[in-house]
Amino acid sequence: MATELAQDYAAEFHREWTAAENTPVEFPPMDVNALVKRHFRLGRELVVTKSMVWDLLVRKAHAMEVYLPGRIKPGSIRTYSTEESDFIRVSDQPVWTDDTVYTQVIQRVFVDEERRAVLHLGTAHMTTPDGEYVWAGLDQPLYHVEWVVTGTEMRPFLRRRMVHLTDAPDTRLAWYFARLMREQPMVDSLEIYLRKQWGVDMTHVPLSA
Question: Are 35 and 136 in contact (CB under 8 A)?
Fold first, then answer.
């Protein structure tokens, strides 16, 4: 069952990723320990392992409001689960280019243990188990995200791809993510994870450092 679900999710992501009208963005692979070194001064020596990065991705998939609080309106998350690795999340999230405006986002989420990948597939509508019909907001296009942990145990890399379901490629949207959102979501999540799960004290490296 898990293998079939993994294939279904991967196939849907690939279909939208390769569709000529959509807006895909592939981010450069992130060397996780280099990322930590660039953004933080840690209170003790620590190597972030591949297992730790995967643990973070799984925790973030199930508790986005904890590990990426800036992307979720407090109290807005509703989760509908068929099984632990496959569930639907409904939440209010800030519009990408205006964080004062919130829109309802519906995402089908799959945690692929075998491939060490998490896929978030945006969807336009759903019917909840109690019969409520729910629609995604119209303030921005639907989008899919794929996170994959690669590399070795002691030198993990994180790969991220994102595709917006647009009527035509949107160069402004692609630029926004490629330039302004390259690392920040992972930097924010890593800080929360290392403090919360590993008790690491840290300070931010000044931007001019």
Answer: no
